[in-house]
Design a protein that fits this description.
InterPro entries: DUF3325 (IPR021762). The chain has 6 helices and no strands. The protein is elongated. The longest helix has 25 residues, at about 65-90. With about 130 residues, the protein is an all-alpha fold. The protein has helices spanning about 1-25, 25-30, 45-65, 65-90, 95-115, 120-125. Helices cover about 80% and strands about 0% of the residues. Helix 1 runs antiparallel to helix 3 (about 45-65) and helix 1 crosses helix 4 (about 65-90). The protein has one domain.
Amino acid sequence: MIEIITTFTAFATAIAGMIGLCLAKERHYRLALPLSKLAEPPRRRLFWGGWVLLLVSVLLSMSAWGVGTGFSGWFGILTVAALFPVVLLSYAPRWLPGLGWAALMSAASAWPLIFGRGSPSQEARLRI
């Protein structure tokens, strides 16, 4: 059960990372947030934040499935996660920031389930 939660967390983190990388480009940022009062979009923070989220995603994937299977499975997760910004940028670009925050918050809410103490799967592993 914990592997499924970790996989969905890796997926949500990959979506947030891809959206961060997408919004790091000024053209996409202005398309998604046309009424932004910022003179200069926070491109560096979005760029590095996107890469950090993708790194967290690959680490979560490897922790769920092991190193070899997790790394190759992460490419599948990354492929599906890249579809969200591509499709939304074409059809509903203003939804990108909201989806990015929703994916990030859903991934953050799963952290206590994955790494919390006293979860049933961790207790079962300790008894064996």
